[in-house]
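Standup notes
- DV: blocked on the single-chain target, sequence here:
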Amino acid sequence: MMLKLSDLKEKTSLKFVQDYQDQIANEVDILSIEPAHIQCEILSKTDELLITVHVDVQMELACSKTLKPVPYHMQFDADIVFGSSEDAEYPITDPIELSDIIFGYILSEKPYTIYHPDAEKTSFDKEKSPHPAFADLDKIVKK
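- DV (later): unblocked, structure below
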């Protein structure tokens, strides 16, 4: 969503739905994503713009072991500061491409690993048999 600075001076809050289906084409671990419900609170200062966002999105992620789809519901809040000070995360530009910034937050907030319930039964390591000289020692220890 493109936000013009002239429009932001009149508004203190925004609600919109953003579809990120096209953006996940290059993401191998996000299989599908529902449209994200985004609420923004806007606080405009002299040289800064503070936007507090609340994001609610449902997606399907690939299991880290089996690559099976795992449903995942994400909900988070973030404070985004625009300006020219050291505290600002982004410079103030006209217009502000807020949807791209929020997609970056979605990517950073999603878990790096997620497991399907069937993944517990999957093992990729072969069991190693002990050296024949130590085979009987295993029986003694496991009494």
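- Follow-up: The helical segments are 5-8, 98-109, 135-141.
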